[in-house]
Amino acid sequence: MIRFIHTADWQMGMKASGLGQVSKAVRDARLDSIKRLVELGNDRDAELMLITGDIFEDNAVDRLLVRKVGQLLAGFNGKVFITPGNHDPLVPGSVWEHPVWEESANTTVVRENSPIELEHCTIYPTPLKEKYSTRNPVSWIQAQDCSTIAIGMSHGNVEGLPDVEPDFPIPQDAAERAGLDYLGIGHWHSYSPYKDGKGVIRIAYSGTHETTKFGERESGNVLLVEIADRGAAPSIEVLPTGKLSWHSLERSLESPGALKSVISELSSIISPENALVRLRLSGLLFASDREDLESIGEILQTRFLFGKLMADALSPAPEDDTWIEELPVGALREAAEHIRQKAMHAPVERDRAVATRALLELFDSKEKAAS
Ligand SMILES: [Mn+2]
């Protein structure tokens, strides 16, 4: 039996640009999550930790960061195996030349495509040595005759994903084809398992240990994998390690009071001090809701680690005539008032809708003229 942690894509040293002053906190959180991951592996008696590429954002990251990561890994009770990925490939001058990797007795940076025989398993690693390639990194693996549990480590794009280039392409049946019990891979930040012809999961992206950006799904985890015997189905447990939560909300407002539910939605975000929230509003802003909009702006600025309100796509509702009063007296203002009356009181619904659209067009052209 073997029990191990599979993780990848830590992207340490990533810029987290676009987050202003918060980007440092976001980078620091990624280090904290490594600590949590190491503790978790120790608590669960994992024998190995397999890190399948892109630990670092690139090979030019701060040397001190490389040392910190190496030292954190030394706290793991088992053995650590690292295969470089396309962000941190094994090239001259890479992060893998840092002395910390030699200092850590439990950590091995794998430098060749060659099987590593351990007590309970054999590892088939594929360290990447370039940033891009159209070759299949696992094609050299032939584990059919392996007598112990056979585990592959690789990094690339699983073939057949929509709109994805064949960058280090890994066939979906690579584990079966190579005779591997499990093939742990990296490159995609979301946990994604792949079943073989018999419905058994033998290939998986662990995903990143800490979510890297808005819109990333199924991330912030590591995998605890257990395999009973050679040929047995792996049992995979997805364990959360991430500290930050990223919320990208889009709401279209259609009726007065709609912002109240947005406020309560913001209240329901747990651990707001570790939450990053991006709120995009569109639709109609009613005069009675303007104060709520202001409150939302304040909440986003104060309650969360990071908050951003995007309200450019909001237009005033027909009931809100304050902007019409700001138009210069004359034909334009008269036309606007006339359309507004139609938008609110025309007996046929379709006429009201057409008039509302016309009013919004008018508002938009006024805003554009003003800016
Ligand atoms: Mn990658």
From TrEMBL:
<dbReference type="InterPro" id="IPR029052">
    <property type="entry name" value="Metallo-depent_PP-like"/>
</dbReference>
<dbReference type="InterPro" id="IPR004843">
    <property type="entry name" value="Calcineurin-like_PHP"/>
</dbReference>
<dbReference type="InterPro" id="IPR041796">
    <property type="entry name" value="Mre11_N"/>
</dbReference>
<keyword id="KW-0540">Nuclease</keyword>
<feature type="domain" description="Calcineurin-like phosphoesterase">
    <location>
        <begin position="2"/>
        <end position="103"/>
    </location>
</feature>
<keyword id="KW-0378">Hydrolase</keyword>
<protein>
    <submittedName>
        <fullName>DNA repair exonuclease</fullName>
    </submittedName>
</protein>
<dbReference type="InterPro" id="IPR050535">
    <property type="entry name" value="DNA_Repair-Maintenance_Comp"/>
</dbReference>
<dbReference type="Pfam" id="PF00149">
    <property type="entry name" value="Metallophos"/>
</dbReference>
<dbReference type="GO" id="GO:0004527">
    <property type="term" value="F:exonuclease activity"/>
</dbReference>
<keyword id="KW-0269">Exonuclease</keyword>
